[in-house]
Design a protein that fits this description.
Layout (H helix, E strand, L loop, with lengths): L3 E5 L3 H12 L3 E5 L15 E2 L10 H17 L4 E2 L3 E6 L4 H13 L5 E4 H7 L7 E7 L2 E3 L1 H14 L3 E3 L2 E9 L2 E9 L13 E5 L2 E4 L5 H6 L10 E8 L7 E4 L8 E5 L2 E5 L3 E2 L10 H14 L8 E9 L19 E5 H5 L4 E6 L5 H15 L23 H6 L6 H9 L3 H5 L7 E3 L4 E2 H11 L3 H8 L12 H6 L7 H17 L7 H17 L32
Parallel strand pairs: 1-2, 1-13, 2-9, 5-15, 13-21
Antiparallel strand pairs: 3-8, 4-8, 5-7, 6-7, 10-11, 11-12, 14-17, 14-18, 14-19, 15-16, 16-17, 20-21, 22-23
């Protein structure tokens, strides 16, 4: 067929679209200005929606969520934790809305079960005693990083090319048709190819913008006016897992009314405030405080928890009728395929906007169907049937864990992350110590990620969760970086340590009180004093002894730097 398509955006929708297009035989190149998940996907709260949240206010979105929830359980099981969900009604919350929620769920085919406050507290002992009753729904938690990497990996397996750290700086426009993109390298790709600032043009028969909140910026390169309805939301991460179920407040959709367990932590959030620029908005302390206060109304113990970080994301929403929308929170969570030939008179270009992480696959299918129609092709989508890498059969992994010397909880965590890739990744010739204790990440997983992304510590983090636990890299960032040696030189390892440490610090700035202030200071002292990483800037780079970072032969099998 030899039809070429460029997909812009390396989030869930972009990687899902690249996968779908490649599976249908297109010659696909995906470009992303940072790492995969660099935009909205990497800053979500990872809520696998049942649709219950939208069952009253946005039933079309609710139906989509429930349908895709079922599909993702089939194709992406290793990315999902089946926590279940509760919509809790507190003593002063209205009965009428509780009944509306039940009726809405029934109309959207969302399974529900009403339970008493006592039963809800037996399930989640830290729920407030003010819980009157609750509705069980099939909510869950989904790892957006693992999900994107799996989609990108499968796209590559089907012949696609994935270019990270490659920002689109222009669309090629010839006689009213987009014929390709110009990218500028933001640094070398995972193979070490390309120089920062280097530009090149990628020609294509069709271009898909899956850039979410940045869709208007890409469209503007073709002189297209596309107004997004983006809003920011703050999320706060606790140091331990106080709950095992997604908790929602059974009130009309509000801010900060969802608590989601993830791995070893719990996420609180998020608020909903309109912003003009997805790259430039205030990250304010009052937002963090508000998320904690609202969550504490449902689960009081979170008020006492140590908050290890806070982060903000932007919602990629699109409002087709902005003149009738009174409250920004009422903007639909539905998605839209915008054909710019029909809408704006620009051929060869489409944008996919709106939607939820839960509906990413359906969005990718819809925009891929659109591309097929443009070329008069009728190939069927298979992404709802074919499992993502790692998900084909995760139930058969238990017997392998002892073989590879991994015991619970390291065995359980490795199995969850790797799925049916565990045997291939963990079957190593040498010792396989734990590099990141908080997230139980072993050397084999780190090396597997390095093989994929090279000397990019934050890309390694996204693939393995190393440094994302309680210590926020304080006790493992140096070990992760040392694993780069000797494949990469000592200077690359040292630079990687600084990059990872700085990225972890960004999210901690708004949680510096109480116990976490002590932890942050400990991390600083380990980094600055013990490892001498706060060297006098007057000392020239040539005077640094990089041999000190090589880790030696490491004969005892421990992680470098122990």
């Amino acid at each position: 067929m030899n039809r070429s398509v460029v997909v812009i955006g390396g989030g869930a929708t972009g990687t899902g679209t690249a996968r779908d297009l490649a599976m249908r035989g297109f010659d696909v190149t995906l470009v992303e200005r940072g790492n995969l998940t660099d935009g909205t996907t990497g800053r979500t709260h990872g809520h696998l929606h049942s649709g219950g949240r939208y069952a009253v206010s946005d039933q079309e979105s609710a139906i989509d969520c429930m349908q895709e929830n079922r599909v993702l359980h089939e194709i992406a099981g290793h990315c999902i934790e089946d926590t279940g969900g509760l919509f809790v009604q507190l003593e002063d919350d209205p009965d009428a809305y509780f009944e509306q929620k039940l009726e809405g769920c029934a109309k959207c085919n969302i399974p529900t079960e009403v339970i008493s406050g006592e039963e809800a507290r037996r399930q989640e002992p830290h729920l407030t005693k003010d819980v009157k009753r609750a509705i069980r729904v099939p909510d869950g938690a989904i790892d957006p990083f693992r999900l994107c990497v799996a989609n990108a990996a499968d796209a590559v397996d089907h012949g696609a090319t994935v270019e990270t750290h490659a920002e689109v700086v222009d669309l090629q426009l010839v006689d009213g048709r987009v014929t390709g993109v110009t990218i500028e390298r933001q640094g070398p790709n995972h193979l070490g190819e390309g120089r920062e600032g280097q530009q090149e043009t990628i020609e294509a028969d069709y271009v898909v913008s899956a850039t979410g909140a940045w869709a208007d910026q890409i469209a503007a390169m073709a002189d297209i006016d596309l107004e997004m309805a983006i809003s920011k939301g703050a999320m706060v991460v606790t140091n331990v897992r106080q709950i095992d179920t997604v908790i929602n407040r059974c009130l009309p959709k509000g801010e900060g009314d969802t608590i989601i367990p993830h791995e070893t932590t719990v996420l609180l959030g998020a608020n909903d405030d309109p912003v003009d620029d997805p790259d430039d908005y205030l990250e304010e302390q009052w937002e963090v405080d508000m998320m904690i206060d609202i969550a504490a109304e449902m689960v009081p113990i979170v008020e006492e928890a140590r908050m290890i970080r806070a982060y903000w994301g932007v919602r990629p929403l699109y409002d087709p009728n902005p003149e009738t929308t009174e409250d920004p929170g009422d903007v639909t969570r539905n998605y839209f395929v915008l054909d710019h030939a029909e809408r704006d008179g620009v051929e060869g270009f489409v944008s996919i906007v709106g939607g939820k992480l839960t509906t990413y696959r359906e969005m990718a299918e819809s925009v891929t169907d659109h591309v097929c129609n443009e070329f008069g092709l009728t190939m069927q989508c298979r992404t709802d049937e074919e499992p993502l890498p790692g998900s084909s059969d995760i139930s058969n992994l238990d017997s392998h864990m002892e073989t590879f010397g991994l015991r619970s909880p390291i065995a359980r965590r490795s199995k969850q992350r790797l799925g049916d890739r565990a045997a291939d990744v963990l079957n190593t010739d040498g010792p396989n110590p734990t590099v990141c204790e908080c997230e139980a990440v072993t050397r084999a997983e780190i090396q597997d990620a390095i093989d994929d992304v090279g000397a990019d510590p934050n890309a390694i983090r996204l693939r393995t969760r190393a440094s994302m636990g309680n210590c926020q890299g304080g006790f493992c960032s140096h070990r992760i970086s040392a694993e780069l040696y000797p494949t990469h030189d000592a200077r690359s390892a040292r630079d990687a340590l600084d990059q990872l440490y700085q990225e972890r610090w960004k999210g901690q700035r708004h949680t510096l009180w109480g116990q976490h202030l002590s932890q942050a200071m400990l991390n600083h002292l380990l980094h600055a004093a013990t490892m001498n990483q706060d060297a006098d800037p007057a000392v020239g780079d040539s005077e640094i002894n990089y041999d000190a970072f090589d880790g030696g032969d490491n004969p005892d099998g421990r992680a470098h730097g122990d």
